[in-house]
Amino acid sequence: MMSRAVISKAWRSSTLSPSSARISQHHGGPHVMMSSMQRRKLLSCINSRIIRSFSSHNKHDNRIHDVIIIGGGPSGLFLSSLLSSYGINSHLLFDKRPKEELLKHPQAHFINLRSMEILKVEMPSVYDGIQREMPDVSEWEGFHFGGSVMGSSGRRLGRVVHPVKKPLRAGQSGSAILLPTNDKIQSSAADDESRDDDYISVCRPAHLAQNKFVSLLLNEAKQRQGGSGETNLRYGEEVIAIEEIDPESQSQPIISIKTSHGQTYQTRYLIAADGVHSFARTSFGIPMMGQNTMQNLVNVHFRTNSHLSKMLMKDSDQAMLHFVYNSQLVGAFVCHDDRKGEWVLQIPFFPPYQTMDDFSIGKVREMVWAGLGMDSNEANECDFDVLSIRPWTMSSLVAQSYVNKSNNMVLVGDAAHAFPPAGGFGMNTGLQDSHNLAWRLALLLRSSNHHMASSVLTKYESDRKPIATQNAALSVRNYNRTLRIAKACYLDDQHPALLTTVLGSPPMSLLPLETRQGMFRRLVRVAMMPLASLASLNSSLHANHIERNVQSILESGGSLPLVFPKYEIGFSYEHGAHSKKEDASNDTKGYYPRMRVGYRLPHIILEVWNSSISHARDGWSVLETTSHEAEDPSDSLFITLTDISSQLRKVLSYDTPVFTLLVLGALPASSLTSMRQAIDKVSNKMNTPLIMANILPEAPSDEDNVSENIITLIDSQQVIWKLMSEESSDTADNPCNAMVIVRPDGHISSVEFG
């Protein structure tokens, strides 16, 4: 049996790690010499402004809040709700943007497999809202490549469909399938039948525009904060100053912030979720490492009217992404919701030789019409509204450190990393940052040991930073996959870069900027002229050759993937798990379940034994597939083992993070008392519940032998024992009586064989 020492060691390994060296941070700048008179005038001016800003309307909040979050996007809102679920109600959230702005622009749109799993168990109302509001999967499972969005107007170079209709099977690749030119997307191989037991997750990925997702998260955060939701979520209020102070009454420095409303607040922990240009991160001198400018783009958000939407909803034209190449436009259309007409067009942008004048509403409308494959003069009742035109810079960056020197400021989301959008890892990595951080903050705030912060938050960084680095590299490879398709159309991404270099170097740089801008525009038009053949259905030697090039790439699996099983749920927090360089050819490799330290606890179908159901039915992550649905609420309940700690926390109504001790095999009655005592001692010492669950290969013959106080789960297929046997390297190991400790975020902390 597992001793108290083993249980304690396993708990500590999941939260603590040796402190790592930090780069010393300092703030400095150029010194300006002033006369004494100038200094007095400057100090007088500063003092008067400070007095005015702090003296009116009682603008100093003397409380020390547990947490302050800067940034109210997906990562910040998700973290706020998680903290509320852990009973950390003394937290505030600030975002300089008005709430309405976040609810307008779609931005990110893909919610991957792991994020959906977390949402299903942590925020079922948000999960249900996503399922309710997202378009039908048949509308977004495909990517199209061609001369226009509408296949009836331009050359269709290729169509691929991704395996998103059903949960993935163990080992199933995430690669897209190239469809024959005239096939409908419904012919996808993803429609094959599989047993529930073969699936690797209880969930599927989702496609929902970020503004709609944020709306769901915002409502959830408000509800979890109760009556304080409106006052604690401060949109339209910018944090303009951050100061670290060391009051005598505190053993750990606290952080003071000042907002654009002239108010000051103090907090034990400051969370930077304020994007790639994070004010909080730069305030603590933490740099971003990587490629700062990979490509400039312009995002055009437009909404089609009902007539145009109907034309675009033909089966052969429906897709999430449309990569369009013609003489008037090279860009990518993102269909957020075909039925509601929500679209975004991404267009390459090359400043300073292009300016936003090149993307006026009139010019953008012409580009959109050309990309859709329609003549605006013949559109009849079809039309669209341009809602916004925004430039942005695509980067691949990861923060040098996720935590400041005092271990009281932490980065999450885009403040910690920025990726190319290809593959959809940006928002998902941020959500999973928050998921990893929330339970750590809850443990720290419940502990009287302030020295724990260094170890606990260092472990957060050692968990999440390698994942961000890995996802950044994957996103760059995905972006390069899109460039490969463009190159097949004889558009080389190096040509604009070479042209801008030439125009920016002598002797060309001696010419007026306006002259060089004109030269750049003319040369780009000339380069795009051959693509006119793709805007027509007529056969031509040039178009035929391009189609063969593109088809060759798609047939060999060179398309931009949408599903990445081993990256979405197969990542590990085990030290050194991501040290080797990944082979790009394996990016869509299938996932195989592992019962190894650091990995997510795999999806295994378990039956909750009747004597355990009395605890509660709400809170379990119940299977949604028909073969395991109970007709009567009193019938057997089938759940997934994934995220078992979160499930048990909700079922047993804990408002604190919990660890789970999975005991495999029958528990002798003689050992129950000593095991409970060991668990209680560890729980009390760590101030964190450790819940025991017993997994059996079959239902007990005598229900009276099953303790009412132990959660009993039945693995009738004995999947967990098979997985444990695969991980055992010692013939003396006995997987029949093994024990597994699971962290609050669903990752394995410890595996001990009997």
Instruction: Give the overall pLDDT as a whole number.
Output: 86
The structure class reads alpha/beta
Low-pLDDT runs: 17-36, 38-58, 185-191, 625-631
Q: What's the main sheet like?
A: 9 strands, mixed
* Spatial sequence of strands, sheet with the most strands: 6-5-4-13-14-15-12-16-18
Q: What is the C-alpha radius of gyration, as a whole number of Å? A: 28 Å
- The share of residues in extended strands comes to 15-25%
Overall spatial form: globular
Number of helices: 21
**How many strands?**
25
Distance between the termini: 7 Å
Helix content: 25-40%
List the helices and strands and how they pair.
Layout: H1 4-15, H2 36-55, E1 60-70, H3 74-85, E2 91-95, H4 99-102, E3 110-111, H5 113-122, H6 124-133, E4 142-146, E5 156-161, E6 177-179, E7 206-207, H7 210-224, H8 229-232, E8 233-235, E9 239-245, E10 254-259, E11 264-272, H9 279-283, E12 288-304, H10 306-312, E13 321-325, E14 330-337, E15 342-349, H11 361-372, E16 384-399, E17 409-411, E18 417-418, H12 425-446, H13 452-488, H14 494-503, H15 513-528, H16 541-555, H17 565-568, E19 605-608, H18 610-613, E20 637-640, H19 644-651, E21 659-664, H20 669-686, E22 690-696, E23 711-714, H21 719-727, E24 739-742, E25 748-752
Parallel strand pairs: 1-2, 1-11, 2-8, 4-13, 11-17, 21-22, 22-23
Antiparallel strand pairs: 3-7, 4-5, 5-6, 9-10, 10-11, 12-15, 12-16, 13-14, 14-15, 16-18, 19-20, 19-23, 21-24, 24-25
